[in-house]
Amino acid sequence: MEFLNALTDPAIPFLRYAFAAGILASLSFGIIGTYVVARRITYIAGAIAHCVLGGIGAGLYCEHKLGITWFGPLSGAIVAALLAAIIIGLVSLHANQREDTAIGALWAIGMAIGLLFIAKTPGYIEPMSYLFGNILLISEFDLWMVLVLDALVVGIATLFYHKFLAVCFDEEYARLRGVRTDLYYLLLLCLTALTVVLLVRVVGIVMVIALLTLPAAVASNFAKGLWQMMVLATLFCIAFIGSGLAISYNNDLPSGPTIIVIAGLVYLGATGLRQFSSRKN
Amino acid sequence: MPAASTQETAIRIRNLDFAYNGTPILEDVILEIMARDSLCIVGPNGGGKTTLLKLILGLLKPNRGEIEVLGQTPEKSRLRIGYVPQYARYDPQFPVTVLDVVLMGRLDRIFCGAYAKADHEAAQAALAEMDLTDLAGRLFAEISGGQRQRVLIARALAAEGELLILDEPTANIDAASEEHLFEILAKLNERLTVMLVTHDVGFASKFFKSIVCVNRQVVLHPTSELTGELIRNMYGGDIRMIRHDHRCSPEGHCNHGIS
Predict the structure, then answer these.
(1) Which fold has domain A2-280?
(2) Average of pLDDT values for A35-50?
(3) Backbone region of residue B131 per phi and psi (left: phi > 0; alpha: psi in -120 to 50; beta: other values)
(4) Is residue B98 domain-resident?
(5) Which of A99, A190, B7, B43 is the most exposed place for a label (fewest CB within 10 A)?
(6) Overall domain count for chain B
(7) Which residues of chain B have pLDDT under 50?
(8) Angle, vertex CA B77, rays to CA B74 and CA B78, nearest 5
(9) CA of B25, closest CA in chain A: separation in Å?
(10) Does A168 contact B at CB distance below 8 Å?
(11) A242: how many CB neighbours lie within 10 A of its CB?
């Protein structure tokens, strides 16, 4: 109850913003997370998420060193995420072998670039808050950004639901039905990139991948079909973020790790339960 | 599309060569398949069966020679082919319903949004034809191998093509399902050209009108010619031995010089 009072307390708007951003972003996380889990591209999504640090670093550098006020860390994150999605997507489409090595390299290079930019940005910048999230940094402007990106991701993902489903399930057949599968695959990775950016502030770039895949993985235990999995994953995501924020506020814990631990425990519990019941049968 | 050309020839391949990374896979292929034919592509693993299939589907490009499918290039005729891949290559955990899989046969008819009423009707008709109506809402991963096979055939039928191509449909299914499969194919062959790839020729003569042997070179035989010796030679690894003894009737055989 303390948490509910805090949500309406005008003195602590950041908690309200974090909660609203979490609920809104859950839609994208449920939908895109389902595609990522079903298509088994968690590793690629992880690489995109980590490359975001490069963009954040560049954004901070532009803002503080070069004085470009309109290009901050969030804009940098969006640009870097999309760029990473396209590069990694092309590598995964055209690299015949050792795809994982190339993606792993991009993963690390993205982070390294970010840290170099941060090192050269004047003033003290704490990389921890970007890596692991810090809800104190959320502003009203961020909330609007989340709203716009969320609408974009959900809109495109819903509009081309059948194309994405076919490309994920059976790429070769989709191509034979006249679908430009490479383009849809890249588009899906770009949507994944934008989704990752949505919650960088709340859970950070290292842990965001867990929030993308765990709700969908839990949902896959109960869902009959892809869109059911999306709806369930969205609900799980809302539950994880809501309860995580409440518990972290009441016990004075960092919010990102609390959310992730809750998601992880539910995932392990659901998977264990499923193993147990299938062995019983 | 002029009706005359589809009436006569379904597939015409002229002097085709295909090599992968410099290794020749298919050499000087000449093949002519008539509409409403039912043919079985056989040959040892690595002999080029799948490559021939992919060339016909336009997924690979020949190094030399040309392919005409239903009177057009493979890329253009693609949408008029009902393709049935091996069901075993699917992710067994992918959350997709039977109806959603069958609707993918209509994917070329929508750009975005939902499928139209006509698409749902075609999918339901294809499901009914394959005796799968009751399974429409089930998960593709939950049903048996034989049923998954039929779902993929229903998907190909929903596309309303003229040529049905099946890749190794007899792999991993039991004898009863296999028999059922050939009953279905015999019925479909009344209105479609049916082409099937397999490495298992035991059953072949029961249903097929022609056999295409692929082992770097491609030779077409009428089924009546399929003898124990032919099969032995085919799997013995040297296809030229078969070519020594052709005694094929002109309408059933396509050899160098005749096309």
Answers:
(1) ABC transporter involved in vitamin B12 uptake, BtuC (1.10.3470)
(2) 94
(3) left
(4) no
(5) B7
(6) 1
(7) 1-6, 237-259
(8) 80
(9) 19
(10) yes
(11) 17
* Subunit contact A168:B94, Cβ cutoff 8 A: yes
pLDDT tens per residue across span B222-255: 766 666 666 665 555 443 333 333 334 444 444 4
B108 and A162: CB-CB below 8 Å?
A: no
Cβ separation A176–B57 shorter than 8 A = yes
Partner residue opposite B95 with nearest CB, options A172, A175, A220: A220
Residues facing B9 on adjacent strands: B34
DSSP letters for A17-53 = HHHHHHHHHHHHHHHHHHHHHHHT-HHHHHHHHHHHH
The answer to whether A221 faces chain B, any CB pair under 8 Å, is no
Q: Which chain A residue's Cα is nearest to B76?
A: A178
Q: Tokens 């490559």: give the residue.
A: B51
| pLDDT bracket for residue A53 (50, 70, 90) | very high
Name every residue whose Cβ is closer than 8 Å to that of residue B18 and which is 6 or more positions away in sequence: B24, B25, B26, B48, B51, B55, B60, B62, B63
ipTM of the complex: 0.86
Cβ separation B104–A225 shorter than 8 A: no
Tokens of A97: 């072998």
Please indicate whether, in this complex, the C-beta atoms of B59 and A176 are within 8 angstroms of each other. yes
pLDDT in tens, B179-211: 888 888 989 999 999 998 887 666 555 678 888
Rounded to whole angstroms, how far apart are CA atoms A68 and A75?
A: 11
Q: Are A224 and B137 in contact (CB under 8 A)?
A: yes
Q: A179 and B93 in contact by Cβ < 8 A?
A: no
Q: Closest by alpha carbon to A213, among A194, A192, A186? A: A192
A163 contacts B78? CB cut-off 8 A: no
- The answer to whether the Cβ–Cβ distance between B108 and A179 falls below 8 Å is yes
- Tell me which residue range forms the domain holding B31: 3-90+163-252
> Is residue B111 in a domain?
no
Q: Which residue of B has its CA nearest to A173?
A: B83
Domain residue ranges in chain A: 2-280
Contact status of A183 with chain B (Cβ, < 8 Å): no
Do the domain assignments include residue B119? no
Q: How much is the pTM?
A: 0.87
Q: Tokens 């899989």 correspond to what residue?
A: B101
Has residue B117 been placed in a domain?
Answer: no
> Chain A to chain B, count of Cβ pairs less than 8 Å apart?
74
* Beta-carbon-side half-sphere exposure of residue B103 (alpha carbons within 13 Å): 23
* CATH number, position B172: 3.40.50.300
Residues 6+ positions from A264 with CB-CB distance below 8 Å: A210, A214
A170 part of contact set with chain B, CB < 8 Å? yes
Closest to B112 (Cβ–Cβ): which among A34, A38, A159?
A159
